[in-house]
Every structure is written in C-alpha cells, then in structure tokens.
Gap junction protein
Amino acid sequence: MNWSVFEGLLSGVNKYSTAFGRIWLSLVFVFRLLVYVVAAERVWSDDHKDFDCNTRQPGCTNVCFDHFFPVSHIRLWALQLILVTCPSLLVIMHVAYREAKEQRLREAGRDGCRRIYPNPGKKRGGLWWTYLLSLVFKAGVDVVFLYIFYRFYRNYTLPRLVKCELHPCPNVVDCFISRPTEKNIFTLFMVATTCVCIVLSLIEAAYLVGKR
C-alpha cells in the first residue's frame, strides 16, 4: 500500500494544528507510519509460513494459526492508522470549504462586503468544533484498538510455545511462533507510541477548551 498518499494529505493539516498537533503528526509519521512501512511489515511477513506445529495432520496447522492469530497485527495496525488519520482530513476539508465559500463571494463581485472568514484556517465557530471532535475521535480510535489488541493478545505479548487441541488435530499439539521476541518488542513499541498519541490528543483538546 502506498502510504505516501496519507503523508501528503496529512502534511497539509500542519499549518492548522497547534504545537501539540504538530508533535502528534510527527509521532504518527516517524514512530508509527515509518516503523510500520520499513520494519513491522517485514517482521510479520513470515508469521504463517513459519508457524510450525509438531504434527502433519492436514489442516491442523491452519486451524491453530487462525485460533491464536484471529487478525494479523499488521492488518490491525494498518486499519488503525487509516482510521486515526481520517479526522485530520476532515479538518482540511472544512478549511477548504471555507476558502471555496470566500472564493465564490469574490467571484460574485461582492468584494466590498465584509468577509465571512477573514482567516479560513483560524479555529473559530464550526472549525473549532470540527477540530475538537477530531481530537476526541483520534483518541477514541487508539483506545479502542488498544483494547482490541489486549483482547486478542493478552498483555500484548506472544508466547514462544502455544498448545492447540482443536479439530482436526489428533491430540494436544505444540506450535511454535516465528520470532516471538522481535514481534513482542515491536508490539510493545507500537502500544507505547499509541499511548503517547492518546495523551497528546487529550492535552490538545484540553488546551483548545481552556484557550476558548
């Protein structure tokens, strides 16, 4: 997937963000998006191929892998990054709507009248609410995905050995996960950066409310 499209779109919201918002964007780009593209995808590329079970029973390995990995980490992170960046695009669209409205008034020959939006990017009125709701939504998405990861993978860690006794496995089968230590390090790193992004979003929301 071409993540540079999201980087190009989100970079436009920098000029409408507060200092906390710019820090949040930097964290998303450097510590989440870049780490995902450069390293995390490769770490999980062999998760199914190198998931070994001590049996040759047809279908047993696939059933056990599906049980212990109902959704891939990498796909959950991709969905999380998409959802958490969408609210920033709404802010850009709202500013673009204001600028287009001002442009229509100028083209209608009403330059002498007072401008509706002297500064379309200033967080006043509806744009203030759009920006505030985007912060709440971003924090909410990250919290929901932290809960999903916790439900699927207890304590956000992967064991080296899992025991599976699902049909069609003939008995209790030992299965071994590929590179569990490396995957645990990346998982905890992504969880930590997600928590920092949640705190930044809440701080920025409190700053906006206090400033108003």
Remarks:
- The chain has one domain: 3-111+120-211.
